[in-house]
Amino acid sequence: MLNIDQFMANLSARHPGESEYLQAVKEVLISIKDVYDKHPEFERVSLLERLVEPERIITFRVPWVDDKGKVQVNLGYRVQFNSAIGPYKGGLRFHASVNLSILKFLGFEQTFKNSLTTLPMGGGKGGSDFSPRGKSDAEIMRFCQAFMQELYRYIGPEVDVPAGDIGVGAREIGYLFGEYKKLTRDFSGVLTGKNLEFGGSLVRPEATGFGGLYFVNEMLQTAGVDIKGKTVAISGFGNVAWGAATKATQLGAKVVTISGPDGYIYDPEGISGEKIDYMLELRASGNDIVAPYADEFPSATFHPGKKPWEAKCDIALPCATQNELNGDDAAQLIANGCQCVGEISNMGCTPEAIDLFLEKKMLYAPGKAVNAGGVATSCLEMSQNAMHLSWRAEEVDQRLHEIMHSIHHQCVAHGREADGYINYVKGANVAGFMKVAKAMMAQGIV
Ligand code: 2IT
Question: Is the pTM of this model over 0.85?
Fold first, then answer.
Protein backbone atom coordinates (compact mmCIF):
# COMPACT_ATOMS: atom_id res chain seq x y z
CA MET A 1 0.00 0.00 0.00
CA LEU A 2 1.30 3.42 -0.95
CA ASN A 3 1.87 5.66 2.07
CA ILE A 4 2.12 9.06 0.43
CA ASP A 5 3.35 10.96 3.51
CA GLN A 6 6.10 8.40 4.12
CA PHE A 7 7.07 8.32 0.46
CA MET A 8 7.26 12.11 0.27
CA ALA A 9 9.24 12.33 3.52
CA ASN A 10 11.85 9.96 2.09
CA LEU A 11 11.95 11.78 -1.22
CA SER A 12 12.37 15.23 0.33
CA ALA A 13 15.12 13.94 2.63
CA ARG A 14 16.94 12.81 -0.51
CA HIS A 15 16.24 15.97 -2.48
CA PRO A 16 15.96 18.77 0.08
CA GLY A 17 14.62 22.09 -1.14
CA GLU A 18 13.52 20.84 -4.58
CA SER A 19 10.04 22.26 -4.05
CA GLU A 20 8.71 22.21 -7.63
CA TYR A 21 9.88 18.64 -8.18
CA LEU A 22 8.39 17.45 -4.90
CA GLN A 23 5.11 19.27 -5.68
CA ALA A 24 4.80 17.58 -9.09
CA VAL A 25 5.52 14.13 -7.65
CA LYS A 26 3.02 14.53 -4.81
CA GLU A 27 0.21 15.54 -7.17
CA VAL A 28 0.73 12.40 -9.22
CA LEU A 29 0.95 10.12 -6.16
CA ILE A 30 -2.38 11.40 -4.83
CA SER A 31 -4.04 10.65 -8.18
CA ILE A 32 -2.61 7.19 -8.72
CA LYS A 33 -2.79 5.81 -5.16
CA ASP A 34 -5.97 3.81 -5.86
CA VAL A 35 -4.71 2.12 -9.01
CA TYR A 36 -1.25 1.61 -7.55
CA ASP A 37 -2.70 -0.21 -4.55
CA LYS A 38 -4.58 -2.53 -6.91
CA HIS A 39 -1.28 -3.65 -8.47
CA PRO A 40 0.90 -5.24 -5.77
CA GLU A 41 3.33 -6.30 -8.49
CA PHE A 42 4.30 -2.61 -8.87
CA GLU A 43 5.33 -2.36 -5.24
CA ARG A 44 7.35 -5.59 -5.38
CA VAL A 45 9.66 -4.08 -8.01
CA SER A 46 9.77 -0.59 -6.43
CA LEU A 47 8.18 0.84 -9.55
CA LEU A 48 7.37 4.22 -8.00
CA GLU A 49 10.77 4.58 -6.36
CA ARG A 50 12.27 4.14 -9.82
CA LEU A 51 9.72 6.25 -11.68
CA VAL A 52 10.28 9.38 -9.55
CA GLU A 53 14.06 9.41 -10.12
CA PRO A 54 15.42 10.57 -13.48
CA GLU A 55 17.29 7.83 -15.33
CA ARG A 56 20.16 10.27 -15.77
CA ILE A 57 20.99 13.94 -15.19
CA ILE A 58 23.69 15.68 -17.19
CA THR A 59 25.00 19.02 -15.92
CA PHE A 60 27.73 21.09 -17.46
CA ARG A 61 29.17 24.58 -17.52
CA VAL A 62 28.50 26.82 -20.49
CA PRO A 63 31.23 29.44 -20.98
CA TRP A 64 30.58 32.03 -23.68
CA VAL A 65 31.85 35.48 -24.65
CA ASP A 66 29.50 38.48 -24.43
CA ASP A 67 29.52 41.48 -26.77
CA LYS A 68 31.95 43.35 -24.51
CA GLY A 69 34.47 40.51 -24.73
CA LYS A 70 33.81 39.35 -21.17
CA VAL A 71 33.49 35.62 -20.52
CA GLN A 72 30.17 34.59 -18.98
CA VAL A 73 29.56 31.22 -17.34
CA ASN A 74 26.10 29.67 -17.20
CA LEU A 75 24.91 26.25 -16.06
CA GLY A 76 23.56 23.75 -18.59
CA TYR A 77 21.40 20.70 -17.87
CA ARG A 78 19.64 17.80 -19.51
CA VAL A 79 17.40 15.63 -17.35
CA GLN A 80 16.78 12.30 -19.11
CA PHE A 81 13.84 11.29 -17.02
CA ASN A 82 12.22 8.18 -18.44
CA SER A 83 12.75 6.19 -21.64
CA ALA A 84 10.24 3.38 -21.06
CA ILE A 85 8.01 4.25 -24.02
CA GLY A 86 10.41 6.02 -26.39
CA PRO A 87 13.47 8.25 -26.72
CA TYR A 88 13.68 11.11 -24.22
CA LYS A 89 11.65 14.05 -25.54
CA GLY A 90 11.05 17.48 -24.09
CA GLY A 91 12.00 21.11 -24.31
CA LEU A 92 14.92 23.28 -23.29
CA ARG A 93 14.21 26.25 -21.04
CA PHE A 94 16.52 29.28 -20.98
CA HIS A 95 15.53 31.51 -18.07
CA ALA A 96 17.28 33.04 -15.07
CA SER A 97 15.11 30.96 -12.71
CA VAL A 98 16.18 27.57 -14.14
CA ASN A 99 17.52 25.09 -11.59
CA LEU A 100 17.46 21.34 -11.11
CA SER A 101 14.20 21.31 -9.17
CA ILE A 102 12.39 23.08 -12.01
CA LEU A 103 13.89 20.87 -14.71
CA LYS A 104 13.15 17.70 -12.72
CA PHE A 105 9.51 18.75 -12.24
CA LEU A 106 9.24 19.51 -15.94
CA GLY A 107 10.87 16.19 -16.93
CA PHE A 108 8.59 14.27 -14.58
CA GLU A 109 5.48 15.98 -15.98
CA GLN A 110 6.75 15.45 -19.51
CA THR A 111 6.93 11.69 -18.96
CA PHE A 112 3.17 11.47 -18.28
CA LYS A 113 2.26 14.08 -20.87
CA ASN A 114 4.16 12.25 -23.60
CA SER A 115 2.50 9.02 -22.53
CA LEU A 116 -0.93 10.65 -22.92
CA THR A 117 -0.20 11.78 -26.49
CA THR A 118 -0.48 8.13 -27.68
CA LEU A 119 2.90 8.61 -29.42
CA PRO A 120 6.22 6.83 -28.64
CA MET A 121 8.15 9.38 -26.58
CA GLY A 122 9.89 9.14 -23.22
CA GLY A 123 10.27 12.18 -20.97
CA GLY A 124 13.14 14.66 -20.74
CA LYS A 125 13.81 18.31 -20.11
CA GLY A 126 16.79 20.60 -20.08
CA GLY A 127 17.97 24.14 -20.25
CA SER A 128 20.09 26.78 -18.62
CA ASP A 129 19.97 29.67 -16.17
CA PHE A 130 20.99 31.87 -19.12
CA SER A 131 18.57 34.80 -19.45
CA PRO A 132 17.87 35.84 -23.06
CA ARG A 133 16.42 39.13 -21.78
CA GLY A 134 18.24 42.08 -23.34
CA LYS A 135 20.84 39.88 -25.08
CA SER A 136 21.93 40.66 -28.63
CA ASP A 137 21.33 38.19 -31.44
CA ALA A 138 25.07 37.47 -31.61
CA GLU A 139 25.19 36.73 -27.88
CA ILE A 140 22.23 34.36 -28.18
CA MET A 141 23.98 32.56 -31.03
CA ARG A 142 27.27 32.21 -29.13
CA PHE A 143 25.45 30.95 -26.06
CA CYS A 144 23.48 28.36 -28.08
CA GLN A 145 26.69 27.17 -29.74
CA ALA A 146 28.50 26.85 -26.41
CA PHE A 147 25.51 24.99 -24.93
CA MET A 148 25.44 22.51 -27.83
CA GLN A 149 29.23 21.97 -27.70
CA GLU A 150 28.54 19.89 -24.60
CA LEU A 151 24.96 18.68 -25.14
CA TYR A 152 25.60 17.07 -28.54
CA ARG A 153 27.26 14.03 -26.92
CA TYR A 154 24.07 13.03 -25.14
CA ILE A 155 21.33 13.52 -27.76
CA GLY A 156 20.31 11.95 -31.07
CA PRO A 157 17.17 11.33 -33.14
CA GLU A 158 16.61 7.91 -31.49
CA VAL A 159 18.17 8.87 -28.13
CA ASP A 160 16.96 12.25 -26.92
CA VAL A 161 15.24 14.95 -28.98
CA PRO A 162 15.14 18.41 -27.35
CA ALA A 163 12.84 21.26 -28.44
CA GLY A 164 11.88 24.72 -27.22
CA ASP A 165 10.31 25.93 -23.99
CA ILE A 166 10.42 29.33 -22.26
CA GLY A 167 13.23 31.40 -23.83
CA VAL A 168 13.87 28.89 -26.62
CA GLY A 169 12.05 29.48 -29.90
CA ALA A 170 12.76 28.93 -33.58
CA ARG A 171 15.80 31.25 -33.52
CA GLU A 172 17.52 29.36 -30.71
CA ILE A 173 16.59 25.97 -32.19
CA GLY A 174 18.17 27.11 -35.47
CA TYR A 175 21.47 28.01 -33.78
CA LEU A 176 21.47 24.81 -31.71
CA PHE A 177 20.76 22.73 -34.82
CA GLY A 178 23.52 24.43 -36.81
CA GLU A 179 26.10 23.70 -34.12
CA TYR A 180 24.92 20.08 -33.70
CA LYS A 181 25.28 19.53 -37.45
CA LYS A 182 28.72 21.11 -37.52
CA LEU A 183 29.98 18.95 -34.64
CA THR A 184 28.50 15.65 -35.80
CA ARG A 185 28.27 16.11 -39.59
CA ASP A 186 24.82 14.56 -39.21
CA PHE A 187 21.69 16.18 -40.65
CA SER A 188 18.94 14.52 -38.65
CA GLY A 189 15.78 15.24 -36.72
CA VAL A 190 17.67 15.69 -33.44
CA LEU A 191 15.72 18.82 -32.46
CA THR A 192 12.11 19.83 -33.08
CA GLY A 193 10.64 23.26 -33.56
CA LYS A 194 12.95 23.85 -36.52
CA ASN A 195 12.19 26.32 -39.27
CA LEU A 196 10.33 24.92 -42.27
CA GLU A 197 13.34 25.13 -44.61
CA PHE A 198 15.36 22.53 -42.72
CA GLY A 199 12.88 19.97 -41.43
CA GLY A 200 10.42 21.90 -39.29
CA SER A 201 6.74 21.03 -39.32
CA LEU A 202 3.83 23.22 -40.31
CA VAL A 203 1.59 23.98 -37.31
CA ARG A 204 4.36 23.28 -34.72
CA PRO A 205 4.58 26.98 -33.68
CA GLU A 206 0.81 27.13 -33.09
CA ALA A 207 0.43 23.59 -31.78
CA THR A 208 0.57 24.11 -28.00
CA GLY A 209 -2.03 26.87 -28.02
CA PHE A 210 -4.21 25.29 -30.73
CA GLY A 211 -4.16 21.90 -29.01
CA GLY A 212 -4.98 23.61 -25.71
CA LEU A 213 -8.07 25.19 -27.21
CA TYR A 214 -9.17 21.95 -28.90
CA PHE A 215 -8.98 20.33 -25.48
CA VAL A 216 -10.76 23.17 -23.64
CA ASN A 217 -13.46 23.27 -26.31
CA GLU A 218 -14.05 19.57 -25.80
CA MET A 219 -14.25 20.04 -22.01
CA LEU A 220 -16.88 22.74 -22.54
CA GLN A 221 -18.83 20.64 -25.05
CA THR A 222 -18.86 17.71 -22.63
CA ALA A 223 -20.46 20.07 -20.10
CA GLY A 224 -22.91 21.42 -22.69
CA VAL A 225 -21.31 24.87 -22.86
CA ASP A 226 -20.71 26.76 -26.14
CA ILE A 227 -17.36 28.58 -26.32
CA LYS A 228 -18.78 31.22 -28.69
CA GLY A 229 -19.07 34.63 -27.04
CA LYS A 230 -17.21 33.53 -23.90
CA THR A 231 -14.67 35.86 -22.33
CA VAL A 232 -11.15 34.45 -21.95
CA ALA A 233 -8.33 35.57 -19.64
CA ILE A 234 -4.89 34.51 -20.84
CA SER A 235 -1.59 34.97 -19.02
CA GLY A 236 1.75 35.27 -20.78
CA PHE A 237 2.42 36.72 -24.21
CA GLY A 238 4.86 34.22 -25.73
CA ASN A 239 4.43 31.47 -28.24
CA VAL A 240 1.90 29.51 -26.19
CA ALA A 241 -0.28 32.53 -25.32
CA TRP A 242 -0.15 33.62 -28.96
CA GLY A 243 -1.39 30.25 -30.26
CA ALA A 244 -4.10 30.10 -27.59
CA ALA A 245 -5.33 33.65 -28.35
CA THR A 246 -5.41 32.89 -32.08
CA LYS A 247 -7.48 29.71 -31.74
CA ALA A 248 -9.76 31.09 -29.00
CA THR A 249 -10.60 33.99 -31.31
CA GLN A 250 -11.17 31.65 -34.28
CA LEU A 251 -13.60 29.63 -32.16
CA GLY A 252 -15.61 32.77 -31.42
CA ALA A 253 -14.42 33.59 -27.90
CA LYS A 254 -13.14 37.00 -26.81
CA VAL A 255 -9.64 37.21 -25.29
CA VAL A 256 -9.42 40.13 -22.86
CA THR A 257 -6.03 39.74 -21.16
CA ILE A 258 -2.40 38.90 -21.72
CA SER A 259 0.41 39.37 -19.21
CA GLY A 260 4.15 39.61 -18.63
CA PRO A 261 6.48 39.84 -15.65
CA ASP A 262 5.61 43.58 -15.51
CA GLY A 263 1.80 43.19 -15.12
CA TYR A 264 -1.22 42.49 -17.30
CA ILE A 265 -3.09 44.09 -20.18
CA TYR A 266 -6.90 44.29 -20.08
CA ASP A 267 -8.50 44.96 -23.45
CA PRO A 268 -12.33 44.81 -23.26
CA GLU A 269 -12.62 45.08 -27.06
CA GLY A 270 -10.83 41.75 -27.43
CA ILE A 271 -7.28 40.83 -28.35
CA SER A 272 -7.66 39.67 -31.96
CA GLY A 273 -6.31 40.30 -35.47
CA GLU A 274 -3.46 42.83 -35.52
CA LYS A 275 -3.38 42.82 -31.72
CA ILE A 276 -2.42 39.15 -31.75
CA ASP A 277 0.26 39.96 -34.35
CA TYR A 278 1.49 42.66 -31.99
CA MET A 279 2.23 39.95 -29.39
CA LEU A 280 4.96 38.73 -31.74
CA GLU A 281 6.48 42.23 -31.80
CA LEU A 282 6.44 42.38 -28.01
CA ARG A 283 8.22 39.03 -27.92
CA ALA A 284 10.77 40.03 -30.57
CA SER A 285 11.74 43.16 -28.59
CA GLY A 286 13.48 40.83 -26.09
CA ASN A 287 12.44 43.06 -23.17
CA ASP A 288 9.96 40.61 -21.60
CA ILE A 289 7.27 43.28 -20.92
CA VAL A 290 3.68 43.85 -22.09
CA ALA A 291 3.17 47.48 -21.01
CA PRO A 292 3.78 48.90 -24.54
CA TYR A 293 0.53 47.22 -25.71
CA ALA A 294 -1.51 49.88 -23.87
CA ASP A 295 0.35 52.68 -25.70
CA GLU A 296 -0.26 50.97 -29.04
CA PHE A 297 -3.97 50.19 -28.50
CA PRO A 298 -5.95 52.85 -26.56
CA SER A 299 -8.85 50.47 -25.78
CA ALA A 300 -6.52 48.66 -23.36
CA THR A 301 -5.35 49.37 -19.83
CA PHE A 302 -2.10 48.19 -18.23
CA HIS A 303 -2.17 46.92 -14.63
CA PRO A 304 1.39 46.99 -13.29
CA GLY A 305 2.45 44.20 -10.94
CA LYS A 306 -0.98 42.50 -11.11
CA LYS A 307 -2.09 39.13 -12.45
CA PRO A 308 -4.88 38.71 -15.04
CA TRP A 309 -6.91 36.45 -12.71
CA GLU A 310 -8.53 39.53 -11.14
CA ALA A 311 -10.27 40.32 -14.47
CA LYS A 312 -13.81 39.02 -15.00
CA CYS A 313 -13.81 36.06 -17.38
CA ASP A 314 -15.66 32.83 -18.24
CA ILE A 315 -12.54 30.86 -19.09
CA ALA A 316 -9.04 31.25 -17.62
CA LEU A 317 -6.02 29.93 -19.52
CA PRO A 318 -2.67 30.13 -17.70
CA CYS A 319 -0.06 30.24 -20.48
CA ALA A 320 3.04 31.63 -18.72
CA THR A 321 4.86 29.51 -16.13
CA GLN A 322 4.58 27.19 -13.11
CA ASN A 323 2.58 28.19 -10.03
CA GLU A 324 1.29 31.37 -11.68
CA LEU A 325 -2.26 30.87 -10.37
CA ASN A 326 -2.52 30.40 -6.58
CA GLY A 327 -5.34 29.74 -4.13
CA ASP A 328 -6.28 33.43 -3.81
CA ASP A 329 -6.37 33.79 -7.59
CA ALA A 330 -8.58 30.70 -7.83
CA ALA A 331 -10.99 32.11 -5.23
CA GLN A 332 -11.13 35.40 -7.13
CA LEU A 333 -11.83 33.65 -10.46
CA ILE A 334 -14.63 31.61 -8.86
CA ALA A 335 -16.14 34.71 -7.22
CA ASN A 336 -16.13 36.42 -10.63
CA GLY A 337 -18.09 33.57 -12.22
CA CYS A 338 -15.29 31.80 -14.11
CA GLN A 339 -16.51 28.36 -15.31
CA CYS A 340 -13.46 26.72 -16.78
CA VAL A 341 -9.69 26.72 -16.20
CA GLY A 342 -7.47 25.06 -18.80
CA GLU A 343 -3.85 24.97 -17.72
CA ILE A 344 -1.68 25.49 -20.81
CA SER A 345 1.50 26.29 -18.87
CA ASN A 346 3.21 23.39 -17.11
CA MET A 347 1.88 23.11 -13.51
CA GLY A 348 0.43 26.61 -13.84
CA CYS A 349 -1.80 26.21 -10.78
CA THR A 350 -0.66 25.68 -7.18
CA PRO A 351 -2.04 22.69 -5.20
CA GLU A 352 -4.27 25.13 -3.25
CA ALA A 353 -5.82 26.44 -6.49
CA ILE A 354 -6.39 22.91 -7.82
CA ASP A 355 -7.98 21.78 -4.54
CA LEU A 356 -10.41 24.69 -4.77
CA PHE A 357 -11.36 23.95 -8.41
CA LEU A 358 -11.96 20.28 -7.62
CA GLU A 359 -13.91 21.07 -4.47
CA LYS A 360 -16.21 23.41 -6.45
CA LYS A 361 -16.46 20.76 -9.20
CA MET A 362 -15.30 23.24 -11.79
CA LEU A 363 -14.13 22.38 -15.27
CA TYR A 364 -10.38 22.24 -14.62
CA ALA A 365 -7.70 20.31 -16.52
CA PRO A 366 -3.94 20.13 -15.85
CA GLY A 367 -1.13 21.15 -18.18
CA LYS A 368 0.08 17.65 -18.93
CA ALA A 369 -3.25 17.02 -20.72
CA VAL A 370 -4.12 20.49 -22.04
CA ASN A 371 -0.70 21.48 -23.41
CA ALA A 372 0.31 18.09 -24.81
CA GLY A 373 -0.42 19.24 -28.37
CA GLY A 374 2.97 20.96 -28.48
CA VAL A 375 5.07 17.91 -27.86
CA ALA A 376 2.67 15.74 -29.87
CA THR A 377 3.29 17.94 -32.91
CA SER A 378 7.02 17.72 -32.18
CA CYS A 379 6.63 13.98 -32.57
CA LEU A 380 4.84 14.57 -35.87
CA GLU A 381 7.89 16.62 -36.87
CA MET A 382 10.12 13.64 -35.94
CA SER A 383 7.92 11.35 -38.04
CA GLN A 384 8.20 13.63 -41.05
CA ASN A 385 11.99 13.90 -40.60
CA ALA A 386 12.33 10.12 -40.37
CA MET A 387 10.31 9.73 -43.59
CA HIS A 388 12.16 12.59 -45.32
CA LEU A 389 8.95 14.33 -46.30
CA SER A 390 6.61 17.03 -45.02
CA TRP A 391 2.88 17.04 -44.50
CA ARG A 392 0.43 19.79 -45.40
CA ALA A 393 -0.82 22.06 -42.62
CA GLU A 394 -4.31 20.50 -42.79
CA GLU A 395 -2.83 17.06 -42.31
CA VAL A 396 -0.81 18.05 -39.23
CA ASP A 397 -3.72 19.99 -37.76
CA GLN A 398 -6.05 17.04 -38.31
CA ARG A 399 -3.66 14.71 -36.46
CA LEU A 400 -3.27 17.25 -33.65
CA HIS A 401 -7.04 17.41 -33.36
CA GLU A 402 -7.32 13.63 -33.14
CA ILE A 403 -4.56 13.43 -30.53
CA MET A 404 -6.22 16.06 -28.31
CA HIS A 405 -9.51 14.21 -28.67
CA SER A 406 -7.84 11.00 -27.58
CA ILE A 407 -6.23 12.68 -24.55
CA HIS A 408 -9.60 14.10 -23.55
CA HIS A 409 -11.15 10.66 -23.93
CA GLN A 410 -8.46 9.08 -21.69
CA CYS A 411 -9.05 11.76 -19.03
CA VAL A 412 -12.79 11.07 -19.05
CA ALA A 413 -12.30 7.29 -19.01
CA HIS A 414 -10.01 7.42 -15.94
CA GLY A 415 -11.32 10.53 -14.24
CA ARG A 416 -15.12 10.28 -14.17
CA GLU A 417 -16.40 10.16 -10.60
CA ALA A 418 -19.57 8.48 -9.27
CA ASP A 419 -21.62 11.69 -9.56
CA GLY A 420 -20.52 12.22 -13.17
CA TYR A 421 -17.95 14.95 -12.42
CA ILE A 422 -14.81 14.58 -14.52
CA ASN A 423 -11.67 14.88 -12.41
CA TYR A 424 -9.22 15.65 -15.21
CA VAL A 425 -6.26 15.69 -12.81
CA LYS A 426 -6.90 12.12 -11.79
CA GLY A 427 -7.80 11.06 -15.33
CA ALA A 428 -4.62 12.48 -16.85
CA ASN A 429 -2.33 11.15 -14.13
CA VAL A 430 -3.79 7.65 -14.06
CA ALA A 431 -3.88 7.26 -17.86
CA GLY A 432 -0.37 8.70 -18.27
CA PHE A 433 1.02 6.57 -15.42
CA MET A 434 -0.47 3.23 -16.43
CA LYS A 435 1.13 3.19 -19.88
CA VAL A 436 4.58 4.04 -18.51
CA ALA A 437 4.15 1.56 -15.64
CA LYS A 438 3.23 -1.32 -17.96
CA ALA A 439 6.21 -0.56 -20.21
CA MET A 440 8.57 -0.45 -17.21
CA MET A 441 7.18 -3.73 -15.87
CA ALA A 442 7.79 -5.43 -19.22
CA GLN A 443 11.37 -4.20 -19.49
CA GLY A 444 12.65 -5.60 -16.19
CA ILE A 445 14.73 -3.90 -13.52
CA VAL A 446 16.61 -1.24 -15.45
O1 2IT B 1 6.46 21.48 -22.19
C2 2IT B 1 6.47 21.01 -23.35
O3 2IT B 1 5.77 20.05 -23.66
C4 2IT B 1 7.36 21.63 -24.33
N5 2IT B 1 8.04 22.60 -23.99
C6 2IT B 1 7.46 21.09 -25.72
C7 2IT B 1 8.39 19.92 -25.77
C8 2IT B 1 8.65 19.37 -27.14
O9 2IT B 1 9.48 18.45 -27.21
O10 2IT B 1 8.08 19.83 -28.14
Answer: yes
